[in-house]
Design brief:
Blueprint: E1 4-8, H1 12-24, E2 28-33, H2 39-46, E3 50-54, H3 65-73, E4 78-83, H4 88-97, E5 101-104, H5 109-120, E6 125-126, H6 128-139, H7 148-155, H8 158-168, H9 173-180, H10 184-198, H11 203-212, H12 215-222
Parallel strand pairs: 1-2, 1-3, 3-4, 4-5, 5-6
Length: about 230
C-alpha cells in the first residue's frame, strides 16, 4: 500500500521531480511545496503520513524548526530529512527536533522509499554509511567536514558556473546561448562539460546536486552578477 506523503523543499524543480518519481511507484503525493517559510504550516494542514523535508544547510541554526513545529502540532506525521552529508551535530539536531530519519540527498529512489516505509512504521532511519561517517568525525574532531559545495564550485570555470545557474533555472540550450551571447553549439559544449565535471548524467541531476550542496548560493556570493536562482 502506498504512502500518503508530502515533499517539501526550497527548490521546486527537485521537489517536483522527487514527487513525480514517487507517484510512479504507487505513492500518494499530497503536494510538492517549494517555500521553506510555510513548509510546516502546509504539512500541518494536510497531515500526511510521511513528510520528506529537504534542507541544503543542516548545520545552520533553525534548520530543523519546521520539524519541531510539525511534530508539536501533528505528532503522527513521520518526518524524513533529505540533505547533504551532515556533521554529527547535524544528524543529532535533526533527531532532536523530532525527525524520524535522515537520508542523503543523492540517495537512490529505492533508498528514499525504504526510509519512508520504515518511518511510517515508527522506525528510526539513518544509513549505516552516515552513522559510520558521524562516528569517524566524532573520534577525529580536528578533521574539517567536507564542504561539497565549495569543492564542486572549484571544479568549474566562471563561465561554467553561469551555465549551471541557468540550467538550474530551467533554461534550455537556446536560452542559455542568448543570455550569454554565445552560439548554441558553444552553450551545448559548456553544458556537457558541467555535467561531466559534476559527475552527473542529466541537467536535472546537475540542478538537484547544485541545489542540495548549496553550490548555487555560493556561486551568487562569488559572482553577484550571475542570474539569481528563483
Amino acid at each position: 500500500m502506498g504512502v500518503r506523503l508530502m515533499v517539501v523543499d526550497d527548490h521546486r524543480l527537485l521537489a517536483e521531480a522527487l514527487a513525480s518519481a514517487l507517484k510512479l511507484r504507487g505513492h500518494r503525493v499530497v503536494a510538492a511545496a517549494a517555500p521553506a517559510a510555510g513548509a510546516a504550516d502546509l504539512v500541518v494542514s494536510r497531515a500526511p503520513e510521511v513528510c520528506l523535508l529537504g534542507t541544503a544547510t543542516p548545520a545552520e541554526p533553525g534548520a530543523f524548526d519546521p520539524v519541531v513545529k510539525i511534530k508539536r502540532e501533528r505528532p503522527q506525521v513521520a518526518v524524513v530529512v533529505l540533505g547533504p552529508v551532515p556533521s554529527p551535530r547535524g544528524i543529532a539536531a535533526a533527531f532532536a527536533a523530532g525527525a524520524s530519519g535522515y537520508v542523503r540527498h543523492d540517495e537512490r529512489i529505492e533508498g528514499v522509499e525504504r526510509a519512508m516505509m520504515k518511518a511510517r512504521a515508527g522506525e528510526a532511519v539513518v544509513a549505516p554509511a552516515l552513522l559510520q561517517g558521524a562516528f569517524a568525525e566524532l573520534l577525529n574532531p580536528v578533521a574539517q567536514p567536507d564542504d561539497e559545495g565549495q569543492r564542486l564550485l572549484q571544479l568549474l570555470t566562471p563561465r561554467e558556473v553561469e551555465v549551471l545557474v541557468r540550467v538550474a533555472e530551467g533554461e534550455d540550450t537556446r536560452l542559455i546561448a542568448a543570455g550569454m551571447g554565445i552560439a548554441p553549439s558553444t552553450a551545448r559544449t559548456h553544458v556537457q562539460r558541467v555535467l561531466m565535471k559534476l559527475g552527473v548524467g542529466s541537467r536535472l541531476e546537475a540542478a538537484a546536486l547544485a541545489a542540495r550542496t548549496g553550490l548555487l548560493d555560493r556561486a551568487a556570493l562569488v559572482s553577484p552578477i550571475l542570474p539569481q536562482p528563483r
